[in-house]
Description:
This is UDP-galactopyranose mutase. The protein is α/β, with parallel strands linked by helices.
Amino acid sequence: MQHYDYVIVGAGFAGSVLAERLASQAGKTILLIDKRSHIGGNAYDCLNEDGILIHQYGPHIFHTNSPEVFAYLSQFTEWRPYEHRVLASVDGKLLPIPINLDTVNQLYGYSFTSEELADYFKSVGEPVEDIRTSEDVVVSQVGRDLYEKFFRGYTRKQWGVDPSQLDKMVTSRIPTRTNQDDRYFTDEFQYMPLQGYTKMFEKMVDQPCIHQLLSTDFKEVKDQLSFDELIYTGPVDEYFDYCYGKLPYRSLRFDHQTLDVADYQPVSVVNYPNDHAYTRITEYKKLTGQEHPKTSITFEYPQDEGDPYYPVPRPENAALYRRYKQLADEQPSVHFVGRLGTYRYYNMDQVVAQALTLYKKLVGIESLQEAVKS
Ligand SMILES: Cc1cc2nc3c(=O)[nH]c(=O)nc-3n(C[C@H](O)[C@H](O)[C@H](O)COP(=O)(O)OP(=O)(O)OC[C@H]3O[C@@H](n4cnc5c(N)ncnc54)[C@H](O)[C@@H]3O)c2cc1C
């Protein structure tokens, strides 16, 4: 049996970045395991049977303010400039979200200036002394009507609980604007990988020192493996056999469809906060820029059962995670990282940064700039 310096569980961003760095820069031997049949984790994309590039696990838009993360990933892909814009279907209209000047003017038939809108928000916003929940955040900024129309239904569908029961971080992620900026993100770097995410991952992990073991659950093979250290990017509670109980996750069902039309909706993502059981529809060609006579779309149905996608941000879950974290900290040769390993709602760039930070620690280098060098 071959001995490895590292076994890495999970070939998503967290596992693949660490495999790439440890193999290419530190000459370590790696066994990269994933229970899925492919690398890329939730960012995996592929051509469907009609040859349209789709994201198997929902739309992934890359955005970051970190020059180091961008420089690091740029070693493995070229980029396509892409600024994400989302519309929400409300009262029979398609309106920009995050809420901005056009959203309010088009919804109510006003013709506010930015200054007038700021005053309007002040007049309808409900003062909340201690902002704790996702409802508090929105109601205090834009008032109850906009909260009900754009946030309440969407959040209830997405998380299965009322925003008044959810930590403020969920809706704090979405800004409110008094100008006409209709970009979903304002980060400095906003791009899509030119040939897709999977091609980028292939470039990262196709190296002689990295052996891939796909379609394999770590649990099934762990007793047969010989290695020095383990990097674990799966769910931390699963690693410890749920000894304190299960950490709650929200999952999704994806309904992928291909339509015999070239164009389906005006932007890549349209949200449905109030109607239908699905939360949003994504049209991939608008993300990827692909030309094709047909178009592929995906409906997202949130659900409790299924693959763990979103850690549910509630205080009792954070407390349960802290108990697992304590166990994790007692295992010096096992490193927990990534969205599932640290039970945190992270974007891709944050996971890359987290993985690079662990790499720095493992090999004893100081700066992030040094960590991303080729
Ligand atoms: C619907 C959706 C949309 C998103 N959109 C965006 C976006 O637009 N922009 C953005 O920046 N981020 C987005 N994200 C977040 C992004 O997906 C994550 O930040 C990123 O994928 C996390 O990488 P990871 O490596 O931590 O986890 P994952 O990608 O989940 O990888 C973990 C891997 O571990 C494997 N694994 C788990 N347990 C085991 C085991 N026991 N044995 C073997 N393998 C195992 C899993 O199969 C999985 O492949 C989105 C997430 C979702 C769910």
